[in-house]
Amino acid sequence: MKFTKMHGAGNDYVYINGFEEQVDDPAGLAQRVSSRQFGIGSDGLILILPSAVADVRMRMFNLDGSESEMCGNGIRCVAKYAYDHGLVDSLEISVETAAGILSLTLFTGSSGLVERVRVNMGKPKLTRGEIPMAGPVTETAVAVPIELAGTSYELTAVSMGNPHAVVFVDDVETFPVAEIGVLIENHEWFPERVNVEFVQVVSSDEVIQRTWERGSGETLACGTGASAVTVAGVLTGRTGRKIVNHLRGGDLELEWIEDGAVMMTGPAVEVFSGDYDPK
After folding, report:
1. CA nearest neighbour of 267 among 45, 77, 57
2. What's the structural domain count of the chain?
């Protein structure tokens, strides 16, 4: 089975071209290829598939085999692969995901290959019923107190097609991301578990983010998470609608535009390709 390793701001996945390859057990394959000791090594598996309603379709699996609705860094790499490998011939494309159909604009470099991608991430969902989160279904969850490991925090819940809990902290570098991240991910408030972003505000237009992804643990970046952070920053009065987000794997540019959608721009990188025996 042919594969391609790609990353967006360090958030790396193994990509399979489903136009040419057949994957019968994507959840099991995700677990095998994601192992950094015994597999290819990645945050998960992404399938690039034909679509009846968009240019291509994306399915995304975490390293534990669970399937997620969307991945902001992953979808940029899907767009790069589709253009660079001839699945599409336009720099404006659509991608079908479990969170809906998203529109992307591709930017090429001097080589003619895609280097950066802007994604219309769509409008955030803010009610507890949409996220989903326990509590009255029509209420929002902005700066909600939560007690964890003997300490009180505030979280803001946002869905960008998948659920996120954003926690603002004073010093993100020293924050115990793994300890607190797993507690929030599996908290009873979130019936489908939740991705968690820990964020330090530098200024009204600049933040630093660390990410705890459900099913994967800490990753170097999360595009849907960075989008949720943009929304949470506005809702809590900490940032403006346009920010630069510094993640461990690189920077993303984000804007919550007036029509309600979040626009995200960032890199997409192909690392290497190879053959993998799925047995």
Report:
1. 77
2. 2
